[in-house]
Amino acid sequence: MIYPLFHDLPLVPTRSAMTELYNNSLDLFAVLDVLELGYDCSKGRRSKGILERCLDKGKKTIRVVVVKSWNHSLDSEVWVITHVGMTSKSKVRK
Questions:
Q1: What is the rounded average pLDDT of the residues 42-69?
Q2: Domain for residue 29, yes or no?
Q3: Which of 45, 53, 65, 85 could disulfide-link 38, Cβ–Cβ 3.0 to 4.6 Å?
Q4: Residue 63: closest CA among 92, 93, 38
């Protein structure tokens, strides 16, 4: 399988992230777009090496969480996709 590269490291999804990608009709290249073009949207402090990025697409917001880790089958450091979520934008109340 060919993995897209983010900061010169491959993006590898977990099993649950693959399910979330499938349920939201997204692929690994959509995740790459969110990571490269999105903004930092972490609601709290994250550990070192964890990125949480969001990208607005129409009325939806795509949220991606990745963590830097070591992959033994690839024998290299990778970005592991741990969460991919899609939510609708909340309306601003007056």
A1: 89
A2: yes
A3: 53
A4: 38
